[in-house]
Amino acid sequence: MFGGNIAVVGGSIAGCATALAALRGGAEKVTILERAADRLQERGVGVSLHRDRYAELEAAGYVDADMPWSPIDQRIWTMRDGESELGRAVGVQDAPFRAYSWGSLWSELRRRVPAEVEYRSGVGIAAVEEDAEGVTLDFTAGGRERFDVVIGADGYRSVVRDTMFPGLRPTYAGYLGWRGASPGAPECGSSDLVWTDLRTVVFPGGHCVIYRIPDGAGGMRVNWVLYTTPPEHLALPLNLQSPTSLPPGKLSTELDAFARDLVRKHFPPYWAECVLRTPREESFIQPIYDLEVPHYARGRLALAGDAATVARPHTGGGAVKALQDALILEQAWRAHDDWAAAGAAYDAGRTALGASMVDLGRTFGQAQVVDTPDWETMRTSDFDAWWKGQIGGPERNSGFGGHALQKDSLEKDGPEKDSLKKGS
Ligand SMILES: Cc1cc2nc3c(=O)[nH]c(=O)nc-3n(C[C@H](O)[C@H](O)[C@H](O)COP(=O)(O)OP(=O)(O)OC[C@H]3O[C@@H](n4cnc5c(N)ncnc54)[C@H](O)[C@@H]3O)c2cc1C
């Protein structure tokens, strides 16, 4: 088992899980360096985890049944149908997911990071220098520190990745995600409203995913993400070619008005109300990017989560992939006596899978946003064929919601793998 003094850059979902993985794997000392000075609970909105992937991760000890969640059973693709409150179903799918607020998921992961891991908030990394003996990190506030191995869990703008693969950046997919979460839900006159149905409201040139998440105080919020290509005349206060986002409070009136007009025009009235009741200052924008790396680990550096792979969110598997990265890293760590072998095993276990998620995300994005079908004429049989054309095989193997953990890959490497086996 390899020990070592390890730094994890980034203390979000991938960072907390990876630190846990390194410690369980046998690292002597683990330090998380997180740029944000405050706690991260309030960041983001909803995140959904496929129930089968959740079960694997729970069995492996990375998530906890106590985290508040809201069940999703099916996904109803819905379009406006005159004044009908909930619209018309274009297609219906099984969608066994658990819906979380991002904050509770992060809090749970943070809680799981053992006390012997040092979590330093408000510590940004400006530069990474690797040599044959170790890695030196330069802090943005000044000062340097040396480690045996550094894991970049620093998201889509990763500074660790920049060092491993200079010039490799996420590529803008050509469209945006508008996001928000409204407190409570509007009154509904229809008895057909079922909150275990995730709604995907479709319109020409995009769609909007709507589902409920726990608000952390015993109530519910209505979480939504709307994907579409902004028209050329719309001024964007963003350079989309360089990875970026527009946080809450920064949405311009023009961008907000564009999205609201689209919602009023194309959404069934009830779902329009769910989105429109989110105030402008609480909505935000995440441009959609693709990113894959040639290697998850090289030399004394490794990547996890979005630092390694950004698959479009239509895959519904980014958080799952980040947690699985950690689990596979733990297994690789346990199985090898030196970092070179552990890193190589981790790389072999994750690089191709990451690329396949990115590929699936591109296919989904093309069909569901860039080149949408004629929803008006689509019937459920057309829908089924359209969906099958995207996943290309049985749904459980498609990667939608994340790929199942490979039983044999779990069994190959680790001597102490009982907890991993349970979920595979
Ligand atoms: C619109 C949208 C919807 C999504 N919905 C889902 C979903 O339903 N289900 C799902 O599974 N996934 C979803 N995802 C994907 C998921 O959110 C991400 O894959 C996941 O959160 C990645 O976590 P991470 O820890 O890798 O990155 P991040 O959460 O981005 O964390 C990176 C951390 O690194 C820190 N950091 C960055 N640079 C530095 C530095 N130089 N020094 C120190 N610290 C640094 C940052 O402050 C941050 O805390 C969605 C994504 C989007 C855009």
UniProtKB/TrEMBL annotation:
Residues 405-424 have a biased composition (Basic and acidic residues). Keywords: Monooxygenase, Oxidoreductase. SUPFAM superfamilies: FAD-linked reductases, C-terminal domain (SSF54373), FAD/NAD(P)-binding domain (SSF51905). Coiled coil: none annotated. The keyword Cell wall biogenesis/degradation does not apply. GO terms for molecular function: monooxygenase activity. Residues 392-424 are annotated as: Disordered. InterPro entries: DHP_3-monooxygenase (IPR053212), FAD/NAD-bd_sf (IPR036188). The keyword Ribosomal protein does not apply. Gene3D superfamilies: 3.30.9.30, FAD/NAD(P)-binding domain. It comes from the Bacteria. This is Monooxygenase.
